[in-house]
Write a structure and sequence with these properties.
This protein is an alpha/beta fold. It has helices at about 40-45, 60-65, 65-75, 80-90, 170-175, 195-205, 225-230; strands at about 5-10, 15-20, 25-30, 50-55, 75-80, 110, 115-125, 145-150, 155-160, 180-185, 205-210, 240, 245-250. It has seven helices and 13 strands.
Length: about 250
C-alpha cells in the first residue's frame, strides 16, 4: 500500500519505522521487543517488510532485533563499515545484506533504493562495543554514529543515535535542512534534557521527537523537562512527544 504521506512509528527507546510515500520500509535501531513496548513480540512477528535497517552503534538496545528482521525480510543493513563487519562476524547478520554499497563511513553520502533514500552518517559521542550476549566480551564495532536520512519527495530525518551534544552539530544545518530530529534525552548514557535542547538549537530542525528515555531506571530525563528547556531557550522548533506504538504522518 502506498501512503499519501511519510509515516513515522515509534517502538520505544530509539527504535523507529519510517514508511515512505512509495511504500518502502526503513527501520532505525530496531529493538522492537524492548521492555517498554507491550506489543513488541507481536510487532516483530507481524513485520512482513523491511527494505533498510539502520543501526547507529553496537549496543544491544540499538542492534535489537536487526538480525532476525534481516533474515526474515531480506533488508539491507545501513551502518558504518566497521559496525557492519562486526555484526556479520559476531551476530550472524547475513553478509550479502551488509555489503559495501550500504555501509559508508561518517560524512560520505550513500544513495540507496534507486535514489529514493540518501544517507549520511554523522559523528556521535558515545561507545559502540558489540557483544553476542550479555556475558560476552564486547568487540570493536567502529565509531558510534547518528544518521541523516533524506527521502526523495519526503522529509529529511536526523536520528542522533546515542550521543552528548557537541559543537559540530552546528555544521549539520549548513549541509542539510532537517525536518524531523529524533533526539535522545534520557541522560546518564546520553545527553539529558538541557543538553538535548542545546543540540536542537544547533541543528535547527522544524520538529523534534524525544527518544531514549525511561526504558531503564537510570534514564531519568523526561519529555516534559526537555520541552521546558526548549521553551527556556526560546527555540522555534515544534516538540512532538510520541507514545510507544504511535504512528504519525510527517
Amino acid at each position: 500500500m502506498i501512503n499519501m504521506a511519510t509515516q513515522l512509528h515509534w517502538y520505544g527507546q530509539s527504535a523507529f519505522k519510517i514508511e515512505t510515500r512509495d511504500g518502502k520500509v526503513l527501520l532505525i535501531d530496531p529493538w522492537l521487543t524492548n521492555p517498554k513496548n507491550p506489543k513488541g513480540k507481536d510487532d516483530l512477528k507481524e513485520l512482513k517488510r523491511a527494505d533498510l535497517i539502520f543501526v547507529t552503534h553496537g549496543h544491544s538496545d540499538h542492534v535489537g532485533d536487526a538480525v532476525e528482521i534481516a533474515k526474515k525480510t531480506g533488508a539491507k543493513l545501513v551502518a558504518g563499515l566497521d559496525l557492519a563487519t562486526a555484526m556479520t562476524k559476531v551476530l550472524g547478520f547475513p553478509s550479502k545484506q551488509a555489503e559495501m554499497d550500504t555501509t559508508p563511513l561518517i560524512g560520505g553520502e550513500a544513495s540507496l533504493l534507486g535514489g529514493e533514500v540518501k544517507v549520511v552518517l554523522t559523528p556521535a559521542h558515545h561507545g559502540s562495543g558489540l557483544g553476542k550476549d550479555d556475558d560476552s566480551i564486547p568487540v570493536y564495532a567502529g565509531q558510534p554514529t547518528g544518521v541523516i536520512i533524506m527521502l526523495r519527495d519526503g522529509p529529511t530525518f536526523y536520528h542522533t543515535g546515542d550521543t552528548d551534544v557537541f559543537s559540530d552539530m552546528a555544521l549539520i544545518p549548513k549541509f542539510h535542512k532537517i525536518d524531523i530530529m529524533l533526539a535522545c534525552v534520557g541522560d546518564y548514557f546520553t545527553m539529558g534534557p538541557a543538553r538535548a535542547a542545546l543540540a536542537v538549537e544547533l541543528v535547527q530542525p522544524k520538529m523534534v521527537v524525544p527518544m531514549h528515555y525511561a526504558t531503564f531506571p537510570v534514564l531519568t530525563g523526561t519529555p516534559q523537562a526537555f520541552e521546558d528547556e526548549i521553551r527556556k531557550r526560546k527555540i522555534d522548533t515544534k516538540v512532538r512527544v510520541m507514545k510507544i506504538g504511535e504512528t504519525i504522518a510527517v
